[in-house]
Amino acid sequence: MQGSMLVHRGGEALMVAMMPERDARPAAHRCAGACARAARRGRANRWHACAGLPTDILAAPASEGTSMTEQHPTDSAAPAIAIATALAARSLGKRVKLPDGELVILDGVDFSVERGESVAVVGPSGSGKSTLLSLLAGLDVPSSGAVTIDGAPLSTLDEDGRARVRAARVGFVFQNFQLLPSLTALENVMLPLELRGDADAEGPARAILARVGLGERLGHYPRQLSGGEQQRVAVARAFVTGPSLLFADEPTGNLDTATGQAIIELLFALNQDAGTTLVLVTHDEHLAGRCRRTLRIEGGRLVADTRPAT
């Protein structure tokens, strides 16, 4: 039976169509049909709720005869020298106009993250943490300031250009997993590889699922998995594309303490093995302490940038 999923992004509620569970088409075709068409029709439908990724990461419109892989940033578009800074925010601000004035969500946020660093972003609810993450990933556009990822200035790119940067370099882990319920664990992890145009999606997906301890659960649907197992699938999906930068938004927020701890151990182990740069939004001060560095946001401002005592 056809269904739908309600997803929130930047205060917007978006309804995304879901495909029938017993459709025999390949995973990419099953979910991409509705979501990619929605992405091509308009810029509002930018969240690929099914795969837990923005539609324009996975399905930026391609010109005729051009594969999805060919749309990724090429070496010619990147600096000729290695960039030590993986991520940078410069005077970053976000304001929203309201009938009775202007709401300042972020104001003058400045920092940079080196390659391979793990950085926690902490602060009270409503302080602007998730908005900051959206701006850093290029999912939202700042009112002022600029963001660069691996030397690519997002502010100079259009929406498709930002999508190509994310497709090539960025992975996401969300609090609510955002797995496609009509796909198995294996198919969920294969999905970004298939939509990217990889010739072999199944091999890497099987390998990473075995790495996260789900080698015996490949054919299970999300409803047949526990919360911890669903988040393991989501973590596998985030790492399977080999991103240089991983954003995680409250990855243990929907899990019990013991399960959440196991997920964090897994996340940090994979991150270390892959040498990925990690930016983690969390309310958990203990979890933040696992990172090499902590950024504290209060009232939309960066009020502290600390590193654990050695």
Relevant terms:
single chain, 310 residues, alpha/beta, disordered N terminus
How much of the sequence lies in strands comes to 25-35%
Broad structural category: alpha/beta
Total number of β-strand segments? 14
Gyration radius, in Å: 19 Å
Taking the alpha carbons of the first and last residues, their distance comes to: 56 Å
Q: How are helices and strands ordered from N to C? A: EEHEEHEEEHEEHEHHHEHEHEE
The major β-sheet equals:
6 strands, mixed
Proportion of residues in helical segments: 25-40%
Q: How do the strands of the widest beta sheet line up side by side? A: 10-11-12-7-13-14
Summed over residues and divided by their number, the pLDDT gives a mean of 78
Please give the count of helices.
Answer: 9
| Poorly predicted ranges | 1-24, 32-52, 54-82
What does this structure look like?
- This protein has helices spanning 27-41, 55-58, 129-136, 159-169, 185-196, 202-211, 227-240, 257-274, 285-288; strands at residues 3-9, 12-18, 47-48, 53-54, 85-98, 101-114, 118-122, 144-149, 152-153, 170-174, 245-249, 277-281, 293-298, 301-306.
- With 310 residues, the chain is of the alpha/beta class.
- The strands form four sheets. Strands 10-11-12-7-13-14 form a six-stranded mixed beta sheet. Strands 6-5-8-9 form a four-stranded antiparallel beta sheet, with helices on one face.
- β8 and β9 form a beta hairpin.
- The chain is globular, with a radius of gyration of 19 Å.
- Mean pLDDT is 78; it is low at 1-24, 32-52 and 54-82.
Structure summarized in a few sentences:
By secondary structure, the protein is of the alpha/beta class. Helix content is 31%, strand content 28%.
